[in-house]
Design brief:
The protein is of the alpha/beta class. The chain is 30% helix and 19% strand. The N terminus is likely disordered. Bound molecules: S-adenosylmethionine.
Length: 237
């Protein structure tokens, strides 16, 4: 039993018990180096409005390259496949069990133009390569919202968020699309955002309730950030 947490629970009383329970669960869950969202939750066609937007934007590309970063069991990649049958789709996830599930599924459905790989960042992806990158419900930690954390650390650090997004941005072609949905930090707070234009905003009802933190990791109470789709600017001719 974690004695610090128990002492905290006794001194804070029943009202804070829920927060302490989550703290206990967090400390007992083995941490995986470099992992953001520790939960694998996904759904078939989880963001139809976002996938439809991407498919419409990419309809003229003969064989668009897509990256589903934090693909979990592959629902996101298969939702994209249904909309873009000629796309080449790669899924990356930090959890080898998730990738094993994706590989089994793509094997069952005889998918030649889909690949899945274990990875914790886009560091090794080629530059200027993808037409669209999807990073949905990955750069966040569910416990921050449930525990009503006032600070993002130690679960999430702005610097890690920024580093990951910069890697994702680098491997996008100029003119390519970056989709970030459900994050604990705002894309507009990273310097690289200056090279992107907002092309898609979610409706408030399409957003998860996850809380947002500033660059110093301080909670921004009540803050909602609706931009979710960004186009990488082409360099001037
Ligand atoms: C909540 S699921 C989201 C799945 C899918 N993108 C969706 O929105 O339905 C979060 C996924 O992100 C993965 N993940 C967390 N940190 C990661 C990292 N550093 N690199 C790659 N995947 C990561 C987790 O393993 C998990 O499968």
């Amino acid at each position: 039993m974690d004695h610090d947490v128990m002492r905290q629970a006794l001194s804070l009383g029943r009202a804070s018990w829920r927060r302490v329970r989550f703290e206990l669960a967090r400390r007992l869950r083995p941490a995986v180096e470099g992992r953001f969202q520790p939960y694998n939750h996904t759904l078939p066609d989880r963001y139809p409005w976002l996938f439809d937007f991407a498919a419409a934007a990419l309809r003229d590309a003969a064989s668009p390259r897509l990256l589903s970063f934090g693909c979990s069991h592959g629902e996101e990649a298969f939702s994209l496949r249904r909309r873009l049958p000629s796309a080449v789709i790669k899924g990356v996830d930090i959890d080898p069990a998730n990738i094993a599930a994706c590989l089994a599924r793509s094997h069952r459905s005889n998918e030649a133009r889909m690949g899945f790989e274990v990875g914790s960042s886009a560091r090794n992806e080629p530059s200027d390569h993808y037409d669209a990158v999807f990073c949905l419900a990955v750069l966040c930690h569910g416990d921050l919202t449930v525990s009503r954390a006032q600070r993002s650390e130690p679960l999430m650090r702005f610097q890690d968020f920024e580093r990951s997004v910069v890697d994702l941005a680098r491997c996008l072609k100029p003119g390519g699309l970056l989709f970030l949905h459900t994050t604990n930090f705002r894309f507009c707070d990273i310097i690289a955002a200056e090279g992107f234009d907002v092309v898609l905003e979610a409706r408030p009802s399409q957003m998860a309730p996850d809380v947002l933190f500033d660059r110093e990791g301080r909670l921004m109470p009540g803050e909602r950030y609706l931009p979710v789709g960004f186009r990488k600017r082409k360099p001037p001719a």
